[in-house]
Specification:
By secondary structure, the chain is an alpha/beta fold. It folds into two domains: about 60 residues, no CATH class; about 290 residues, TIM Barrel. Helix content is about 25%, strand content about 20%. It contains 13 helices and 14 strands. The strands form two sheets. It has a twelve-stranded mixed beta sheet. Strands 1-2 form a two-stranded antiparallel sheet. The longest helix is centred in the last third of the chain and has 13 residues. The radius of gyration is 20 Å and the shape is globular. The N and C termini lie far apart (about 45 Å). Bound molecules: iron/sulfur cluster. Iron/sulfur cluster (SF4) binds next to loops.
């Protein structure tokens, strides 16, 4: 496999880091000065910290604004409580413990509340903060619901991160889903290729199982979350290569994040790198106005410009990501801006009558979320508003 020539400053050959050492006490991150640790402990008492020695090794320690650092190291700005813990109102679509059903064809199984690292901008931080029990160890009620709904042809297994489950447990979940005749596609939502690629490369049983599953009646998609091109290390490439070799399709989704990837050159490199390693750039999400996430805020106007600029120098194969706002009303594609109006289209909708609908709203320069705009009445319905304001 070709190694990337664009990225300077990363180690060019896969390193051995196994077993990766997880760190969940910020005191044990040895490159953070003592006085800062004391300040950050106030943050981690609200929203916990978790990372590992491999991922922390990707941080440029000489740069206080390093993008990898921003992804995983707490920041005092998180104590700003504007926004809500669940602006997408995901929990309101819970149909059985650990199972959500919002869009006709798709069910979501929250299989765990653990991740290989805790992203500081996480849109599901309520799973780590509140004792919500939205993720469930016993997925049988969710499986029963899915088996009784023949319109569900694809299931997203997520969390948390399902690759934090043992291979035995993950296999059990996937086999049970595969046994439901109308389930054709199973998606595994994971950031482990970025946080700990050895979870994949060092587990032949996982890869064998994925191989068998893909050779049967189901297609497995791995939905990765690379936020920055520097996360695509030789180790991560290796993991992606093995997953693709097992017959999985691999798609990437990332939120647009201030200080991480709000730069057209970074977005260009990310899209290119993904396409070079056989990963389809799928969604760029407008990050949700979740409590504590204000420091990652990128306005809609700026987001459109950054994404459009990033596409100027990439091939069509890398231009596949849609810019999406995942709102309680549905997945709304942000199409662009013209003549003082934002243009949107429903990619997925909570209500059938909105599916595929175009709509526009007058530009508000500071707008971040759909609720910051004057949405046409027929689209909004009786939705309540949520934003950072
Ligand atoms: S991997 Fe996903 S669920 Fe886990 S902390 Fe990051 S954004 Fe949240």
């Amino acid at each position: 496999m070709k190694r990337d020539h664009e990225l300077e400053g990363i180690i060019k050959e896969p390193r051995r880091y196994t077993p990766v050492r997880y760190i969940s006490d910020i005191e044990n991150v040895n490159f953070i000065p003592r006085d800062e640790i004391e300040r950050l402990k106030r943050v981690t008492r609200v929203f916990p910290f978790r990372s590992n020695d491999y991922y922390l090794s990707l941080i440029d320690r000489t740069d206080p604004n390093d993008p990898i650092r921003r992804i995983v190291i707490p920041d005092e700005s998180e104590l700003d409580e504007s926004g809500t813990l669940d602006p997408g109102q995901e929990s309101s679509f819970t149909v059985a413990p650990g199972c959500e059903h919002k869009y006709t064809n798709t069910a979501v199984l929250l299989s765990t509340d653990k991740c290989g690292g805790i992203c500081r901008f996480c849109f599901r931080k309520r799973l780590f903060i509140d004792d919500t029990k939205e993720a469930s160890r016993d997925i049988s009620p969710g499986l029963k619901y899915i088996s009784e709904h023949p319109e569900i042809d694809n299931v997203l297994v997520t969390g948390g991160d399902p690759l934090l489950l043992s291979t035995k447990r993950l296999k059990d979940i996937i086999e049970k889903l595969m046994a439901i005749p109308h389930v054709q596609i199973i998606r595994i939502g994971t950031k482990m290729p970025a946080y700990n690629p050895f979870r994949i490369t060092d587990d032949p049983k996982l890869l064998d199982f994925l191989n068998e599953a893909n050779a049967s009646n189901c297609q497995i998609y791995m939905m990765t979350q690379f936020n920055h091109p520097r996360e695509i290390t030789p180790e991560a490439e290796e993991a992606i290569w093995r997953v693709r070799e097992s017959g999985c399709r691999v798609h990437n989704q990332t939120p647009l994040l201030k200080g991480v990837n709000d730069n057209s050159e970074v977005l260009r490199k990310l899209a290119n790198r993904l396409s070079y390693i056989g990963v389809t750039p799928y969604y760029i999400f407008q990050n949700r106005p979740v409590s504590g996430n204000r420091a990652f805020k990128v306005t809609l106007l700026r987001g459109i410009k950054l994404i459009e600029d990033s596409k100027k120098k990439i091939s069509g194969l890398a231009k596949t990501a849609r810019y999406i706002l995942s709102h309680p009303l549905g997945k709304v594609e942000i199409l662009g801006v013209k003549d003082g109006h934002f243009f949107f289209k429903f990619h997925q909708s909570r209500y059938k009558e909105n599916l595929g609908k175009f709509f526009s709203c007058p530009v508000v320069e500071s707008a971040y979320w759909l609720d910051d705009l004057e949405i046409p009445e027929d689209i909004r319905g009786s939705q309540s508003r949520a934003s950072f304001a």
